[in-house]
Amino acid sequence: MQQIQLTNKTILITGVAGFIGANLAVELLRSVSPVYIIGIDNINSYYDTSIKEYRLNQIKSMVESRPESTWTFIKASISDKELIQSIFDEYKPQIVVNLAAQAGVRYSITNPDAYIEANLIGFYNILEACRHSYDDEEAGVEHLVYASSSSVYGSNKKIPYSTEDKVDNPVSLYAATKKSNELMAHAYSKLYNIPSTGLRFFTVYGPAGRPDMAYFSFTNKLLAGENIEIFNYGNCKRDFTYVDDIVEGVKRVMQSPPEKKSGEDGLPVPPYAIYNIGNNHPENLLDFVDILQQELIRAGVLPEDYDFETHKKLVPMQPGDVPVTYADTNALEKDFGFKPSTSLRDGLRKFAQWYYSFYMKKCV
């Protein structure tokens, strides 16, 4: 596996105001010098945009202390093909990290158009721009890294989920679009020799995360005195992965594009790879809720005498959900010497502290 240095690279991050994108930009600015980051995000209203603005401010704060590096933000959608091509023409990114997507399993049932526009058309535009980055014998994109999802495993019964498993049974449109991304990237890697790596993320959580995720929405509801619904009567397990672990994994992968080489037929072997990034340790949903409530009390988000039992409701499985997510991370460990290690308690503690600071300190 070849290695490329991130120093002095121009890196395009799509979905840069998103949870993983913003944390990645901050980490690159913190640890790589100099680095030139171009960020694109349409700041859509799928969830509270004040959280997205908060993340962008975190990036701005970091770059202010790194005068040798640059940060350029473009508010736009990757579904705008002409704009994407113009960004590639102007900035000539050497590494592209595509994290822009319409997320969420349940929302894909009520608003499928958003998934086709962002996840299929948008990703196609990124692939086309990568393809044309080699025109006129330009050096072009050295590595395309893109977000896939554990949702691609769908109704697979075998666990832990391995990238060697067949993933032909999606149970949501969201999952189908992410599997499509992997197929599209493979085709472009084969046809145009574009080094690409897909990352199947497993339930990413942490401070300033997505409010539609269970840990965040549970906190909002408990604070409002509402009931939280625990699906499949609590018989769910999730491979929760702390955002810092995800970012470290992405950063390592960025530096190791699949090697370009030819097969016996003289044609390019697709420089293409897929990895799971998960905690390799699924947690029972009821245990997760128990730890969350302890940490919310510890952080002062909820009072010590809060009656959790009266606010818990066990309900059936939701359409599009799966009972267990569990990542086989052997390939990630073998190729990059890396395995996520943040415990669920430590991660939820940091989330609860952030939540208190972001939502409640200003009210005190």
Question: How would you characterize this protein structure?
Answer:
The protein is of the alpha/beta class. The chain has a domain at 10-202 and 243-280 and 324-341: 3-Layer(aba) Sandwich (Rossmann fold). It is 40% helix and 16% strand. A seven-stranded parallel sheet has the order 3-2-1-4-5-6-13, sandwiched between helices. Strands 7-10 form a two-stranded parallel sheet. The chain is globular. InterPro entries: Epimerase_deHydtase, NAD(P)-bd_dom_sf. Keywords: NAD. This is GDP-mannose 4,6-dehydratase. Pfam families: Epimerase. Residues 11-278 form the NAD-dependent epimerase/dehydratase domain.
SSE arrangement:
Layout: E1 10-14, H1 19-31, E2 36-41, H2 49-64, E3 70-75, H3 81-91, E4 95-98, H4 107-110, H5 112-132, E5 143-149, H6 173-192, E6 196-201, E7 204-205, H7 214-223, E8 228-230, E9 237-238, E10 241-242, H8 243-254, E11 261-262, E12 268-269, E13 272-277, E14 283-284, H9 285-299, E15 312-314, H10 330-336, H11 344-360
Parallel strand pairs: 1-2, 1-4, 2-3, 4-5, 5-6, 6-13, 7-10, 8-15
Antiparallel strand pairs: 9-14, 11-12
Helix pairs in contact: 1-2, 1-8, 3-5, 5-6, 9-11
Keywords: NAD
Pfam families: Epimerase
Organism: Claveliimonas monacensis
